[in-house]
Amino acid sequence: MADTNKDPNKNKELMRAVKFTLFSISAGLIEIIVYSLLDLLTKWPYWPCYLIALIASVVWNFTLNRQFTFQSANNVPVAMLKVAAFYAVFTPVSTILGNYLAETRGWPGILVTGLNMACNFVLEYLYDRYFVFGKSLDTNERAQRQR
């Protein structure tokens, strides 16, 4: 027998996770494209290619997720500072570890970037959901119109 009393909050969280995943995939594509172009067109080592690609994907992902996934009307500079704090830790760790794996251990840079992206996906969702946007979920105009 099907459950006819579905929890609307559970459905909302599932949709939030689906949206975050789809936007993260688009950000991941941006990161891979930017990384690949820089890797192919320059003689730069791994880390600047990765760093530039990461920044491009973060700006894209933040903008879409703030507006559509978390539907937050919170203060943009404050939210950006919180995200910057996350990346102030994640970026050096992933850049140093990624550079070690790619340059010292000889792992393919695209594989290292993919592993960094997978870690970033999980950690950033949790960080954004509960810290950056946790108290301002569903407060923007779009969310208000959906009520």
Features:
single chain, 147 residues, mainly alpha
- What's the story with the biggest beta sheet? none
Radius of gyration: 17 Å
Q: Runs with pLDDT <50, length 5+?
A: none
Run of helices and strands: HHHHH
Class from secondary-structure proportions: mainly alpha
Q: Output the number of helix runs.
A: 5
Helix content: over 70%
**Average predicted local confidence, pLDDT:** 92
Can you walk me through this structure?
80% of the residues lie in helices and 0% in strands. It is built from 5 helices and no strands. Helix 1 (8-41) packs antiparallel against helix 2, helix 1 packs antiparallel against helix 4 and helix 3 runs antiparallel to helix 4 (109-132). The two termini are 30 Å apart.
What is the gist of this entry?
This protein has 147 residues and is mainly alpha-helical.
